């Protein structure tokens, strides 16, 4: 059986809207790859999630299964607590009695022959869920063991936006729940998945990387001047542009083909960036220096091809990585540099 590598992307606490409601679950995302680090995209997989108490391999307090289909990037999105229950009751887990760990097992065929891929400690979720169940906690500071609640110290728990405010006789402790959520700890300029990160989305776990070096210093955009309708611009738009360019070319070596043939980091989904993506590279890791990182991408003081066609059929957009402006340029101008990108 083909071995799998499961890359954990993020575990985030659910949004708590009312402390009068039982906790429904928390979000879980993971990217499924094979042993060669190739993403298993658009594929049905079987997943078994097990919550263990105390330690890795500790007491199983809850187990459930899912049968999701990975998306185009090999990503699965689950909500722990909403799957098909194998054992336990998610709603009665005492999150204060941790630590808790989550074990992930996968069957690449979509069946139930699960292979355990790893176990991670739950860091932020227990805090958020425990807050949901603790609204009426009474703390007996003197431990007098009597049933009279009037000599106990009441604890008030209020969710104020992202702030969890716990108040007792000693004052109020405010915890920012967003700061407890797991982070993928990725930053623009990091070397990651075969390239250099130049864009990170709102989740902090997904974005774009470009190759660490130029793939060509002298390449045509295409083999002729024909219009191929590679007019997309914006984030992730270069992928479709690249496919359209290649589908309309008979043979030869040109910018889009150079990118598509690249296998850096054992990934085969590299493409020629859109005009917008190319500008992000210039601003964030190039000489544009909008983030103060400097030219960490090592770009030349020269022009780079985008995959976006210009308003005339004979041209496509290039960008000057020395001074920043973009220009319409003839497709058969072979003096332009090439840098590939891919999504993660």
Radius of gyration: 26 Å
Task: List the secondary-structure elements in sequence, H or E.
Answer: EEEEEEEEHEEEEEHEEEEHHHEEEEE
Spans of at least 5 consecutive residues with low confidence: 1-23, 130-147, 149-154
- Number of H- or I-type helical stretches: 5
Instruction: Please tell me what the overall shape is.
Output: elongated
Distance between the termini: 26 Å
Number of domains: 3
Describe this structure in words.
This protein is mainly beta and 344 residues long. The chain folds into 3 domains: 4-131, Immunoglobulins (Immunoglobulin-like); 135-177, no CATH class; 191-343, no CATH class. 12% of the residues lie in helices and 35% in strands. It has 5 helices and 22 strands. It has helices at residues 125-133, 177-180, 237-247, 255-261, 275-285; strands at 4-12, 26-34, 46-53, 59-66, 75-80, 84-88, 100-107, 115-121, 138-139, 153-154, 156-160, 163-168, 171-176, 191-192, 195-200, 207-210, 216-219, 303-309, 315-320, 326-330, 336-338, 341-343. The strands form 7 sheets. Strands 6-4-3-7-8 form a 5-stranded antiparallel β-sheet, with no helix packed on it. Helix 3 (237-247) crosses helix 4 (255-261). The protein is elongated and about 65 Å long. The protein starts with a strand and ends with a strand.
């Amino acid at each position: 059986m083909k071995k799998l590598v499961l890359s954990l992307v993020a575990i985030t606490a659910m949004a708590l809207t009312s402390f009068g409601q039982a906790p429904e679950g928390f979000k879980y995302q993971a990217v499924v790859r094979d042993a060669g680090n190739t993403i298993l995209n658009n594929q049905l997989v079987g997943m078994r999630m097990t919550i263990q108490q105390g330690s890795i391999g500790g007491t199983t307090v809850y187990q459930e299964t899912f049968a999701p289909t990975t998306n185009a990037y090999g990503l699965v999105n689950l909500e722990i607590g909403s799957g098909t229950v194998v054992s336990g009751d998610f709603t009665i887990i005492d999150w204060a009695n941790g630590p808790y760990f989550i074990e992930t097992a996968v069957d690449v065929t979509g069946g139930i022959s699960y292979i355990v891929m790893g176990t991670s400690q739950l860091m932020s979720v227990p805090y958020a869920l425990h807050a949901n169940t603790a609204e009426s906690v009474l703390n007996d500071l003197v431990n007098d063991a009597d049933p009279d609640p009037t000599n106990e110290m009441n604890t008030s728990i209020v969710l104020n936006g992202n702030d969890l405010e716990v108040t007792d006789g000693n004052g109020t402790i405010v915890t920012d729940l967003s700061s407890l959520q797991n982070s993928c700890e990725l930053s623009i300029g990091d070397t990651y998945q075969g390239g250099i990160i130049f864009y990170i989305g709102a989740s902090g776990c997904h974005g774009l990387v470009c190759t660490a070096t130029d793939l060509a210093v002298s390449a045509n955009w295409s083999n002729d001047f024909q219009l191929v309708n590679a007019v997309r611009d914006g984030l992730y738009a270069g992928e479709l542009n690249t496919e359209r360019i290649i589908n309309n070319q008979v043979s030869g070596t040109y910018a889009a083909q150079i990118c598509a043939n690249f296998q850096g980091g054992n990934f085969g989904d590299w493409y020629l960036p859109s005009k917008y993506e190319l500008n992000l590279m210039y601003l964030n890791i190039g000489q544009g220096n909008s983030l103060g990182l400097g030219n960490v991408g090592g770009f030349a003081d020269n022009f780079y091809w985008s995959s976006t066609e210009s308003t005339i059929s004979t041209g496509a957009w290039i960008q000057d990585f020395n001074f920043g402006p973009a220009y319409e340029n003839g497709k058969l101008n072979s003096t332009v540099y090439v840098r590939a990108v891919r999504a993660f």
